[in-house]
Structures are given as structure tokens and as C-alpha cells.
Design a protein that fits this description.
Layout lengths: L2 H5 L14 H19 L1 H14 L1 H14 L20 H15 L5 H53 L10
Helix pairs in contact: 3-4
């Protein structure tokens, strides 16, 4: 240990590679800002580009070109959020569903379990068909009840109009 090491302040830069330079700091801030905007989605990117166009047009154009070049303008792949929570109907959820279905249909090697699984699947398919038939009958009954109510209401209104004196009589015309 030299005498200069003992008296050097820890905040001062002792060599050229001790602290990151200005370019790497700017790159770090840019990555932080990009992540922050990705967390907020496309509206945040568009708002930033519009503000950039008004404050300094070259900055706004640069943001728009960056959005186009990285695919942030037209796709949602750069948005950071829980993909499982947002994957209803998405490709990832469909892939998980199909891979689970393929795994369920593969034989396990245990013949007793495979027979039990086949019987259970057959029973569940029958129950599903019965339930769908029940729902169909339920919808038909509801439709019939609504139609009967409509026809009764229509007949009631027609009889009320016919009961009024001179409403539909030929002498009134």
C-alpha cells in the first residue's frame, strides 16, 4: 500500500476504468427509460413520441424510428407484464393447452391406470354431451316462454283495442 492509496478519497476517480463513463451511463438511462415505457405499453410510447415532436422534433422522429425499428409500434411483444395472466386466447395459452392434452392422451405404461383414465374420459365425454343437451333444452324452453309471453301480450293489446268503442269498427271510418 502506497502513501497515495492511504490518503485517496473513495469518491474520487483513481483510474480511467474505475467508474462507468458518460456513454455507458447514458446507455443505462436509455435502457431504464425503455423498460419503463415498455411497462406502460404503446400509449406511453406514442405520448413520448408526440411530446418529443413538440419539444425537439428530431427527438420525436428518433423515437418514432426507434419504435418502428424495434417493432414497438405495431406489436405487443415488448410490453412487460405477466404473460400467463394476459394469455387468454393467445398462442402461449393454446400451446400449453395442447401440450397438456397430448400429455393426457399418452399412455403412462401402467395398464390399470390407462384403463381407468380411458373410462373416466369416456364418462366425462358422456356427461358433457348430456349437459350440452340439457343447455339446449333449457334455451329452447326459455325461447318458448318468451315467445308465449310475447303472443299473450300481443293478444291482450289487440283485445284492448277491440274493446274500445269505435276503435276498429267500420262505422268509425
Amino acid at each position: 500500500m502506497t502513501s497515495t492509496d492511504a490518503f485517496s478519497s473513495p469518491g474520487l476517480r483513481a483510474g480511467p476504468y474505475e467508474r462507468p463513463g458518460l456513454a455507458s451511463q447514458a446507455w443505462g438511462y436509455t435502457r431504464q427509460a425503455t423498460g419503463w415505457l415498455d411497462d406502460r405499453g404503446r400509449p406511453a410510447w406514442f405520448a413520448t413520441a408526440i411530446v418529443g415532436l413538440f419539444v425537439a422534433p428530431p427527438v420525436g422522429v428518433a423515437i418514432l424510428l426507434f419504435m418502428l425499428g424495434t417493432g414497438r409500434m405495431f406489436s405487443r411483444r415488448h410490453e412487460r407484464h405477466d404473460r400467463r395472466a394476459m394469455s387468454c386466447g393467445k398462442r402461449g395459452a393454446r400451446h400449453e393447452t395442447w401440450s397438456a392434452a397430448r400429455a393426457a392422451l399418452r399412455p403412462s405404461g401402467n395398464h390399470a391406470f390407462d384403463a381407468y383414465k380411458a373410462e373416466t374420459l369416456r364418462r366425462l365425454e358422456e356427461e358433457q354431451a348430456q349437459f350440452e343437451a340439457f343447455l339446449h333444452r333449457l334455451r329452447e324452453a326459455k325461447d318458448k316462454a318468451e315467445f308465449d309471453e310475447f303472443m299473450d301480450d300481443r293478444a291482450r293489446r289487440a283485445s284492448e283495442r277491440g274493446a274500445e268503442p269505435g276503435a276498429d269498427s267500420p262505422e268509425a271510418a
